[in-house]
Amino acid sequence: MEETWDFEFLSRIADSCLSFLSEFVDDWLANDMRVSIFKILLSWLIFSLIAIHFAWKVYGNTVNDMYYRQGTGQNGGTPEAAPHLSGWGRKAGDPLKTHRD
């Protein structure tokens, strides 16, 4: 009994996919305005994705290097505090506190 249900379910899915595809092909072959707009938008989307892919291949390392902080420490090469500014509530002789203190 369970096998027939599985077969019936799969056949319904296959029939609905085939009917959708046949309607899609019929609409695709028709010279309708909405089909023309769909074709234009689909080609623009595909062209844009290909252009982004090739631009990332060419300029990806440059962009990555611009935003990647090099150096050691938690924030890359940036200092923990600006040397010309005194910290809040810190006296002149106190050592700098780190997050471990």
UniProtKB/TrEMBL annotation:
The chain crosses the membrane at residues 37-59. It comes from Solea senegalensis. Belongs to the TCTA family. GO terms for cellular component: membrane. GO terms for biological process: osteoclast fusion. Residues 70-101 are annotated as: Disordered. This is T-cell leukemia translocation-altered gene protein homolog. Residues 91-101 have a biased composition (Basic and acidic residues). The keyword Membrane applies. The lineage of its organism: Eukaryota, Metazoa, Chordata, Craniata, Vertebrata. Keywords: Membrane, Transmembrane, Transmembrane helix. It is found in: Membrane.
